[in-house]
Design a protein that fits this description.
The protein is an alpha+beta fold. The chain is elongated and about 95 Å long.
């Protein structure tokens, strides 16, 4: 039967027959010749000039003590570069390549860095490689000033629960972007977990904040009080009140 598999088998046997029955030194010599030829071809290919696209890492330098980015700064920048194959291989694999240093002026608001700043930072990091173009439109920067604000804690106004609460500490400090901190209500509502009527009268509650805001404490202790334990207008508590 003269099918495709038979023809392929005859071709393989024809190719392998000259190598059958040879001494081990023969195979070692053939292997060495193949490796040398592959290495020569690879070196010849890497000595040529190519144009390719890289995701180049970025290192941001700004006044992080007084300013904060409202949106994450990109960690890498897609760039199209032209250079020798060896240099492009090093840049692509990260061998001996340092990130591009970018130094924006972190004034509040949204802005773009001038093109000459991008090109200078990239060109200094990519020595021996020509930067052709980069995705500058994807690098919009939005900064805001850091600020701190002290706020008392309270239950959410629409909680509709049958008890009140006292928090320890009663006042905490929030630090974060000024445009975000200024929107926090006063007092700051503490999101409570589901609490059954038989739960302990004192529990620890986590202070939930936006990811860009830090609180002076991560948890506070909440003391549950029934409404009968709330003070009257004269500052005294109801006599019939009990803690749950």
């Amino acid at each position: 039967m003269n099918g495709p598999l038979n023809r392929a088998g005859r071709l393989v046997r024809w190719f392998v027959r000259p190598f059958a029955g040879k001494e081990p030194s023969f195979y070692r010599a053939v292997t060495a010749c193949l490796l040398a030829a592959g290495l020569f071809w690879q070196m010849n290919a890497l000595s040529k000039t190519y144009t390719t696209r890289l995701n180049f890492p970025l290192a941001w330098h700004y006044d992080s003590v007084h300013y904060v980015p409202l949106r994450p700064l990109p960690k890498a920048l897609p760039v199209t570069v032209t250079g020798q194959g060896w240099r492009l291989l090093q840049a692509n694999m990260g061998w001996g390549t340092r990130p591009a240093d970018l130094r924006p002026v972190p004034l509040p608001g949204t802005r773009y860095l001038p093109a000459n700043v991008w090109r200078r930072g990239l060109q200094n990091a990519l020595e021996g490689v020509q930067v052709n173009e980069w995705a500058g439109d994807t690098l919009r920067l939005t900064f805001d000033r850091y600020t701190s604000r002290r706020l008392p804690l309270a239950l959410p106004p629409d909680s509709g629960r049958s008890y009140a609460a006292i928090f320890e500490p009663a006042v905490v400090t929030f630090r974060g972007p000024a445009s975000l901190i200024s929107t926090f209500p006063n007092p700051y509502p503490v999101v409570l977990p589901r609490i059954s009527g038989s739960a302990a009268s004192e529990i620890e509650v986590t202070i939930e904040t936006p990811f860009q805001v830090r609180c002076s404490v991560s948890k506070v202790r909440m003391h549950r009080l029934t409404h009968s334990l709330l003070p009257n207008a004269d500052g005294r508590h109801h006599s019939s009140s009990t803690k749950r």
